[in-house]
Amino acid sequence: MRALATSISATEARAAGSRTIVAGIAAIVLILGLTAVLLFANLPDADAFNAQVERLFVESDLTSRGEIRLLEILAQSGTAFSEVLASYRFIIFVLLVFAAALLIAAVTFLVMLIALNRRMGRIERKGIEVNSLLISRESNTVYLNDFEFKLTEAAIETLAVLAEARMDDEVLSGAQIEAVISGRDPSQCDEAAGATRIKRLRDTLGNQMVSELLVRNIARKGYTLAVDKNAIRMV
């Protein structure tokens, strides 16, 4: 029942997050749409200049050739003004569409980044979800889920010791790790020697996140694998 409640809660949280994203994007589009409407509504009429020239032509008694020529120039200027204003409208429309696309992309990437940070936080708190850990001493190879890691002989020995301890629900100190590998008594081994083996194992694994989360260091207790003991196999 508890697992079912957790699953339902997670589903509801994802649904709420999706609704929030859709609402945010819709709000951005709505705000930019209202801005575009107000902007275009307050732009001057493209035919206003031509209308004034036409009115001047109708109401004025123009007789001389110079006056008529001046009126023609004014009409041409009105046409040019209309074309420029139309191009400005198109440019403003393109800029608004571009701004909307940028804002939507920014919101999407921000949500993805937040989700990724939360996911990384869960991984840091819970460790790596390991479904299978196969240790092959013969080939000095470790199969972690679907990933293959080629280790040195010393690193595979250290990992094998940790795996055996994990299957027995034990936490080993650095001195105990060194004692198991060297065959000596723990009192005769140095804590730093085991810590050095752990460091070399992590360096051999390579991926910092994998190595740090797979091999856990429990304060004042020792080292253990953050793996379900039922997922460990050794050949």
Structural account:
It is a single chain. With 235 residues, this protein is an alpha+beta fold. It has two domains: 2-126, no CATH class; 133-234, Winged helix-like DNA-binding domain superfamily/Winged helix DNA-binding domain (Arc Repressor Mutant, subunit A, Orthogonal Bundle), CATH 1.10.10. The chain contains seven helices and six strands; from the N terminus they run H-H-H-E-E-E-H-H-H-H-E-E-E. The chain has helices at 2-42, 48-59, 65-126, 153-167, 174-182, 191-205, 208-214; strands at residues 133-136, 141-144, 147-150, 215-218, 222-225, 232-234. Strands 3-2-1-6 form a four-stranded mixed beta sheet, covered by helices on one side. Strands 4-5 form a two-stranded antiparallel sheet. A hairpin with a 3-residue loop joins strand 4 (215-218) and strand 5 (222-225). Helix 4 (153-167) crosses helix 6. The protein is rod-shaped. Residues 1-10 have low confidence and may be disordered.
SSE order and pairing:
Blueprint: H1 2-42, H2 48-59, H3 65-126, E1 133-136, E2 141-144, E3 147-150, H4 153-167, H5 174-182, H6 191-205, H7 208-214, E4 215-218, E5 222-225, E6 232-234
Parallel strand pairs: 1-6
Antiparallel strand pairs: 1-2, 2-3, 4-5
In short:
69% of the residues lie in helices and 10% in strands. The chain contains 7 helices and 6 strands.
What attributes characterize this protein structure?
single chain, 235 residues, alpha+beta, Arc Repressor Mutant, subunit A, 2 domains, four-stranded mixed beta sheet, two-stranded antiparallel ribbon, 7 helices, disordered N terminus
